[in-house]
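Reminder to self: tokens first, then the designed residues, so the page reads top to bottom the way the pipeline ran.
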């Protein structure tokens, strides 16, 4: 299966007395490059989340954003920390010995004091498990998104491959005719220019030149590379780097075909092949 490196997933999960929000965004990159935007309460879980992402993805620039929104209301009424309030009272009494004119703490001051009002807190172990569960589900959704995009990329590449095969099919039947015609033209020109030259030597030179302009080997390699592209597209292994290498090889053969061309037809085919290969290369840059 072909996976694109582009994808998006967003999930929301209610946990005890809070809500977890997850966003995963991915674009193409040469390697796996993960960036985090984590809530302060979850920042310590970055290594755990990073490990989960590495288990599911091999390439791509990934942005992982997780927020923790705690509910202001709970099914259980908030409690007051009586021990802390007792300490505040004792500290106030001692302080007023030295500052008798100071204002006493009001009820509002006491309730705003950190830790006086106790809410139900989420335990770290429970939070870790909830985050792992949410991220795992998010990664599955992200991979599904990347798979759908990958199917589209695969269809585009297969379409270009079919066009390449059609172009190669145009050239193969023409090779014997083109080579023979070119040899005849060249021989006539040589005979006219060099009337006294040895005819046997002309024949030998013509054979050597025909071998130099023969592109049957290049067409064979083009066909082999096309078959390998198809095989990789239908395999389950990561395909991006392999396909990128094959695009280089296809382009090399297309260039050689153009440099050996002795006719307008083969030159046009070479140019068309290079256009199709470049179109595939652009799409392959986004394949995992």
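Designed residues (288 positions):
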């Amino acid at each position: 299966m072909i996976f694109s490196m582009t994808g998006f997933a967003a999930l929301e999960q209610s946990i005890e007395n809070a809500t977890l929000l997850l966003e995963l965004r991915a674009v193409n990159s040469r390697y796996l490059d993960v960036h985090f935007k984590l809530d302060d309460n979850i920042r310590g879980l970055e290594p755990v989340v990073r490990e989960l992402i590495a288990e599911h993805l091999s390439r791509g620039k990934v942005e992982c954003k997780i927020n923790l929104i705690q509910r202001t209301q709970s099914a259980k009424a908030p409690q007051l920390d009586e021990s802390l309030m007792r300490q505040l009272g004792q500290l106030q009494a001692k302080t007023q010995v030295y500052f008798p004119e100071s204002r006493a703490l009001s009820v509002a001051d006491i309730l705003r004091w950190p830790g006086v009002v106790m809410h139900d807190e989420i335990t770290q172990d429970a939070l870790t498990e909830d985050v792992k569960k949410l991220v795992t589900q998010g990664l599955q959704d992200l991979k599904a998104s990347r798979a759908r995009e990958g199917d589209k990329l695969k269809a585009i590449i297969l379409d270009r491959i079919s066009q390449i095969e059609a172009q190669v099919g145009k050239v193969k039947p023409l090779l014997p005719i083109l080579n023979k015609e070119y040899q005849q033209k060249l021989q006539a020109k040589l005979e006219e220019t060099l009337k006294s030259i040895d005819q046997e030597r002309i024949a030998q030179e013509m054979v050597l030149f025909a071998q130099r302009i023969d592109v049957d080997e290049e067409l064979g390699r083009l066909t082999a590379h096309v078959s390998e592209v198809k095989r990789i597209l239908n395999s389950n292994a990561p395909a991006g780097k392999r396909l990128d290498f094959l695009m280089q090889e296809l382009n090399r053969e297309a260039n050689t075909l153009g440099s050996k061309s002795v006719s307008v037809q083969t030159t046009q085919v070479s140019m068309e092949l290079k256009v199709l290969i470049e179109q595939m290369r652009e799409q392959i840059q986004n394949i995992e």
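The chain has three domains: 7-73+123-146, 79-118, 149-284.
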